Inverse folding.
């Protein structure tokens, strides 16, 4: 985990613009030094990550907060494509599923992906965000 003074970079992948607006506000409240980029679907996120990887892999986000249900490319398709393209061979980015799904099959499926650190239920809160990053610091 980076020290407190270094910015944390986050890629938020969610098709709900209002949700993104709220999530960004909450993340900035929970974590003071944060750079956040939002993508409205998995395909756009993959394209952004490939572009970053080509220019400077060290600029890949520290965290990817990924919704499951999105048009064009959903969260599962994103994970498969992310792995297939080997976007982050050094494992810099920690991926968290952020979803309003309460289906145990979605939660279990998320746990079946080695790339996914955890499944976090929406709505996000300052407490959930802080908890996620506190857990991460202890690893």
């Amino acid at each position: 985990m980076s020290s407190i003074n270094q910015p944390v970079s986050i890629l938020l992948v969610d098709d709900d613009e209002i949700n993104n607006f709220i999530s960004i506000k909450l993340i900035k409240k929970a974590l003071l030094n944060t750079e956040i980029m939002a993508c409205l679907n998995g395909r756009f996120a993959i394209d952004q990550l490939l572009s970053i990887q080509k220019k400077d892999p060290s600029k890949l986000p520290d965290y990817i907060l990924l919704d499951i249900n999105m048009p064009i490319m959903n969260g599962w398709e994103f994970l498969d494509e992310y792995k297939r393209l080997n976007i982050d061979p050094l494992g810099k980015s920690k991926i968290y599923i952020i979803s309003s799904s309460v289906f145990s099959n979605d939660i279990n499926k998320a746990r079946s992906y080695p790339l996914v650190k955890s499944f976090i239920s929406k709505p996000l809160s300052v407490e959930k965000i802080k908890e996620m990053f506190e857990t991460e610091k202890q690893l």
